[in-house]
Every structure is written in C-alpha cells, then in structure tokens.
Amino acid sequence: MIKQLVQQMTLEEKASLCSGSDFWHTQPIERLNIPAVMVSDGPHGLRKQDDKADHLAVNESIKAVCFPAGCATAASFDRQLLMTMGEAIGESCQAEKLSVVLGPAVNIKRSPLCGRNFEYFSEDPYLTSEMATSFIHGVQSKNVGTSLKHYAANNQEHRRMSSSSEVDERTMREIYLAAFEKPVMDAKPWTVMCSYNKINGTYASESRKYLTEILRDEWGFDGYVVSDWGATADRVQGIIAGMDLEMPSSAGINDRRIVEAVKNGELDEDLLDQTVERILTINYRYLENAKPDTKWDKEAQHALSAHLAAECMVLLKNEDHVLPLSKTDDIAFIGEFAQKPRFQGGGSSHINCFKITSALEAVKDMAQVTYAKGYDLLTDTTNDTLIKEAVAAAKQAKVAVVFAGLPDIYESEGYDRTHMGLPDCQNEVIRRVAEANPNTVVVLHNGSPVEMPWVDDVKGILEAYLGGQAVGLATTRILFGEANPCGKLPETFPKKLEDNPSYIFYGGEKNIAEYREGVFVGYRYYDKKNMDVCFPFGFGLSYTTFAYSHLVVDKETIKDTETVTVSVDVTNTGHVAGKEVVQLYIADHESTVIRPIKELKEFEKVALMPGETKTVTFFLDKRAFAYWNTHIHDWHVETGTFDILIGQSSQDIHCRQTIDVQSTVKLPVDYDMNSILLDLLSDPDAKAIIEPLMLDMMKKLMAQDEDADKAGNEAITLEMSKAMMQYMPLRAIVSFGNGQVSPEQLAMLLKKINNPEE
Length: 758
What we know:
Elements: H1 2-8, H2 11-16, E1 39-41, E2 63-64, H3 70-73, H4 79-95, E3 100-102, H5 125-140, E4 145-151, E5 164-166, H6 169-176, H7 178-187, E6 191-194, E7 198-199, E8 202-203, H8 208-218, E9 224-227, H9 235-241, H10 253-263, H11 269-287, H12 298-312, E10 314-318, E11 331-334, E12 352-353, H13 359-363, E13 369-372, H14 384-396, E14 399-405, H15 424-436, E15 440-445, E16 460-463, H16 471-479, E17 512-514, H17 523-529, E18 546-553, E19 557-559, E20 564-572, E21 578-588, E22 599-608, E23 613-620, H18 622-625, E24 627-629, E25 634-636, E26 640-649, E27 652-662, H19 677-682, H20 684-705, H21 710-715, H22 718-725, H23 732-736, H24 743-754
Parallel strand pairs: 1-3, 2-12, 3-4, 4-6, 5-7, 5-17, 6-9, 11-13, 11-14, 14-15, 15-16, 19-27
Antiparallel strand pairs: 7-8, 10-16, 18-20, 20-23, 21-22, 21-26, 24-25, 26-27
Helix pairs in contact: 1-11, 4-5, 5-7, 12-16, 14-15, 20-24
C-alpha cells in the first residue's frame, strides 16, 4: 500500500511529506486521501498544543497529567514501573489522537550543570537503556509511537544548536551510544529524534554514519528519523544521511530545495522515495490502530502519578531514625515548596497540569502541622522575617521538615546551570532551622545534584527529585511511613561541582565541546580516583534493612561466546515490608586498556516482607565483560579474571565472586620495526618467536663481557637486562646486538609474527 501511494505522488508531493505542515502535524495530501497525524511533547506527560503552537511552552497546552520526570523515574530502578507509566501515557495519546509522543530522552548526565538533566535518566548508560526500553514498550503497547531522543551526544544546552561534541570512538560507544542501542534494538521505537549539535564536526541531522550506518544498518532501526525542532541545517544532505522528517514546517522552503536537488541530480529520487515510505509507514501504523474513543481517566492517572513518585524517592540520610514521622507529634513544614511544589522542569516538556497536590494539602488528611514559608521562590535573597518565622516554628516542633530545591529558573531547556548550589536563602533557612531543632529533615525538589553544605547538620534527607503533579501526596506518604522509600540514586552527588570529571571542559570553547574525561563519567571517575562523594551512584536507604548471602556463579570459566548465571539471596532483616534494588557490577582484574574500576551490568528490584528471603537471578553474556575495541571497531573481551560484585550501591559491595573469561577473538596485529619489546612480549604468539632471540642475544653479550668487567656483570643481571630492554623498539636490536642480528633477520621475524598462518 505505502509503495503504491508513493508511486502515485508527484515529486512536489513527496518533498512536502518530508517536513511538517505546522509545529506538530505531518503534511497531509488530500488528493491521495493521506491524512496528517499529530505528535506531541513528552516524555513524562502530554504537552499537546492545538492553536498557536510553539516549542517552548509559551502558549498554553491542554490540561494533562504530569508524571515524575526522568530524573525521578530512573531512581526507581524499576522496569515495570516505567512500563506502567508508558502504558498510561500511551492511553492518553490515543484519547488525544496523538500518533507519537516525543520521548524518552536518554542523553547521559555528563555534568550536573546541564539544564535539561531533569528529563534525562542517569549518568550510567546501562540503567538509562533499561529504563528507556521499558518506557517504550509501555507506550507502544497502546499502538502509539515514541521518539527516542536526542541522538546523539547532546549533553549540554549551552550552544546546543551550533556546538560540536568532540567524542572519541570508544567513549561514544561505551557511554553515549550505549544509552540508545538497546532501546533501538529491543524496544524498536517508531521514531528517533536527531539532536541539534554536531558530532565530531558534522551536524547530527547530516551524519550518515550515525543515522544510517549505525542506527539502521547496525542496530536495525526501521522507523523514521525526525529532527529536533529546528535542528535541520542542510535539508538535502539530511535526506542523504537518513534524516527523514523535518520539524517544524519550513513553510515550503526546504521542500523546494528537495525538488531542485532531485531535478539537478544532487539527490537520488530513490532516496526520497525511501524517506517518504518510512514516514508513511509509521503514520499508518498509528492510523490503522487509532482508538479515538479511549477514555482518559485523569484522576486515576493522578493517583498513579503519586504511586510512581513514592517509588522513586531516595532516602539519603536517616540519622537516629528521625523518619518516619509520627502522626501524633508536633511537626513543622517549612519552605515555599511545601505549598507550591516544584515537580517538573521548564521548556518543551512543561505540562499544563489539571491538578496539583502539595505536601501541605496532602498532610491535612494525615496529621496536624505548622507551616512557615521560610523563603521566597522569586529571589535568592535571605528574608529575615521569613527566617524568624521558620525558626520559631522549628523550635515548637519535635521534627522540622524543610522543603527545598531548585526554582524553575534554575533548571530549564535552553540554558545550563552556572553552579551546583541551592539558592542562598534556602541554604540559610536550612542552617538556621537545624540550629533551632536537632531533628531537622530536608526534602529536595531538583532535577540534578545539588551541593549540601548542611549535610552533617540535619538528621534526614529525602530526595524527591521532580516527582510529578502528585509529588506532595507521595512525599507525605514517605515522611509518615505509609510508603517505604525504595529509590536509589541514578547519579553520583559529588561534594562540590569542581569534583565532577567534566568540570574543566564542560561547555567547551565557543562551538567546540571536548569530552576529555572519556569513559570516566559519573561513578566511573569517582571510583577510579578513589574520591569521596556526598552520596554515591546507586545509594538509597530504607525504613527496613537487607542482607545478602549465597552468591552463586554457575561456572568458574566461560568463553566469551557463553553466558553465565548469577544468583544471590536477599533477605529483609527489618520489621517492615520494603523493596531493595540488587545491583550487579563487573570489575576487570587486569586490562590492556584503561577501564573503570567497576561498571553496572545488571539490577533487579525485589519486594520483601519482614524476614522474607528471595533469590535474585541474573544472566550475563559477552557484553557484560566487554569494552569497545577501536582497532576492530567492535565489542571485545580480553582473556582474564573478572569480579562479579553484588551491592547496594557502587561503593557498598556485599558479595563478590571471580570468574575467568576466555576470549575467542584473536585481535589482528601489525607489528613493525618501531614496536617495542614490551608489546611484543605481551603477545603470547609474538613472545614465543622473539623471546628466544632476546635471551640468546643477552647471554652472548654477557658472556663476551664476563672477563672484561666481573663487577659490572654482578650488578647487571639477566633479569635486569630484560627489564631494561622492554621499552626498546625492535629496530634497536640491530644497534645493541653487536652484529648478531641483521635488519633482514628482523624483517623475517616480523613477517612470521604478523602472518603466522603463512
């Protein structure tokens, strides 16, 4: 059907389908009864605009439900939770006649400063890819598409439309592309959104390497690529590269360029046909499964949003079991966020909520609390009157809860943060309240890490992230023990911004942003540096406790073509029901490449009643042990010993077991006269050929010199000579060999080493 439609089109009609008709709709062709379809911003709710549409939410969108943002949902470490949220958003899309929701956003949190971090999941690509895959499955189970974004290396808002992300091949594969790879291959999103930025000098919208060779040829993507809104540079080059749909409309300008390019031979019309087929295939996938009579129960989704938010919150500190609160105690809620919660970020994902539940509103049904504003969200300036009211309320309470976080202006699409601090007025309120009441708890509303100069002065810290429109209800449930916190940090909270691995180079110089920290993003860097952090990746407390035991690895040795099964018992050793996130990390004992100390390779969230034990099982394949080898341009496992680590965070490992992995891939070698002996001797095949020559040569030289200098020979042993020679290039054997080895002989040895099969 699609191919037949395309064959009936004029060149001009084909070109018109390659861009939107407006901000949110694809182009219809009435002559052929091809309707338009609508897409909408996401990814944590709908921002559907019908009239006077714009990209950055200047004009109001329909009333909708705001679920927790990506920064929060990643903290759940719960695949099923993301699936459930995706299903709810998919139903909303069907009710609102939307074909594609623009999300999830899987860009890695390279720096706490990125203004759009609240939309992104994590600093870790494995966690990111798992969350995204589940979300996509959920949405698309309702016959609505997703748009995996922003592909790729879009990790800053500063100069995002012109900056070139300069990333080496291994870093790109292990960190930034890995977040996209599994969602594309396993969840098969209907669309992928290319980013604004350049990648190593080429705009993402014009990169055939990324849009065709990797995305389609390697990963098997079969949907269409859509530009980020306004990300199209050269439209014709975009089609050649594999960028299908330009959004928003270019008012026909780029359509005419496409027509001209076909007519003058610059653009093969077959490529244009292919582009149109991709777009129509996805459009009709929705149209043929549209369910416009779907009921959108916003109240039910509001309740779901509260449940999701509670599952995502991370208890960072609970000294002296200050939490949960007693409903009969005198409690003070302090801070404007208690009354006006911050629960989403600014920009294209900003949702016009039909309902918002604050903590002050929700607590009315649980307990009596005293409220003090404490600070003004519209200013960073400390207000002495508000602080005095806050201190007075704190002194009268058994526990003082300060609601703090980043105001809207601090975090938004379009620009980056300039520092990692809370507003000064909020830090001062927390300090003064903690002085007045030793039982002070801080609730944080933020989309990215913040510095905590008061971390040692308060007894409790609850990270609520940006928890959606029902965040107040979820927060009070956690505070008063109606729900048990079970979130884990999807990112490291450093003690200060300067500790972040990208700190020196983040933002770049003019239009060049160099990713000089390489693969050492987040905990990979802090572990390697053995650096103290405020809270590590994967960390999170509970109102109960857990114990790990009986780690079992079913094989002691495997080939890289085999899988290994890992199981561990987890027991709830406390007195209340709770959920634990079991985290599995892999550590390479010794590697010829510089690798992180450990990397997250699996996780599972498990619910346990008091005293209950469950066995959690993982299956690991080659990828769990591999790194990206830039010589073969593929994933590679080196033969060696690896640790399988089970823990509660990246810095809290409870069980470990070793396993030997044997590589079945022989890496190609190409030694020459400038190759040093150390490298040759590290290669077993080369060593077998070259080492006898070295030993023979050294023995002869030492024998010749024996009578000349006995004292010298006692000082310079055979072992010492071998150690000294390891950095010597092969050609130096001729110079130091006293005529024993000729260049011709070395050339023959090299040929034998490089071509052992001959």
